[in-house]
Amino acid sequence: MGNKNETSKKVASAAIKMSLSDREDEDKIKTKYKDTEMKVAAVDFGGEFNSSIKKIVERSIVAAEREEVIDEDSHAELGAVAGATREAISQIHSKATGFNVGGKIGIAREGDHISVSIYFAIGLLHLNEMAIGLGHRAVT
């Protein structure tokens, strides 16, 4: 599987690509990784930031299960996705509190490395701030 740092970087990069992709690019990325050890998933989200935090974590877990990035019967894997998602959210918290947000969650896994990238458009009328949060967990 290679150097652990290289794997971490590769998984983080795939998660970021998924979070920044549109539907067409998302399908291409999924196809690219289909026959490799890398598993990827993505899902959109939106709403008022504070009230959306729980939904963002839930959507991450459901997307990871749906795309078989994680095993739905593994508490460790569910917790890894939830933890990485919370970490990504915490990086954006001070910018987004009190604002509406929308964006996309990208999830990638290879071996025991899981990364969650969240692309946020933080809105105030037509003036949007862009931000990305990234979390990583290892499961064994």
Automatic annotation (TrEMBL):
One of its GO terms (molecular function) is RNA binding. Belongs to the HutP family. It comes from the Bacteria. Signal peptide: none annotated. Coiled coil: none annotated. Antiterminator that binds to cis-acting regulatory sequences on the mRNA in the presence of histidine, thereby suppressing transcription termination and activating the hut operon for histidine utilization. Homohexamer. Keywords: Activator, RNA-binding, Transcription, Transcription regulation. It comes from Halanaerobacter jeridensis. Transmembrane segments: none annotated. SUPFAM superfamilies: Hut operon positive regulatory protein HutP. The keyword Secreted does not apply. The lineage of its organism: Bacteria, Bacillati, Bacillota, Clostridia, Halanaerobiales. This is Hut operon positive regulatory protein.
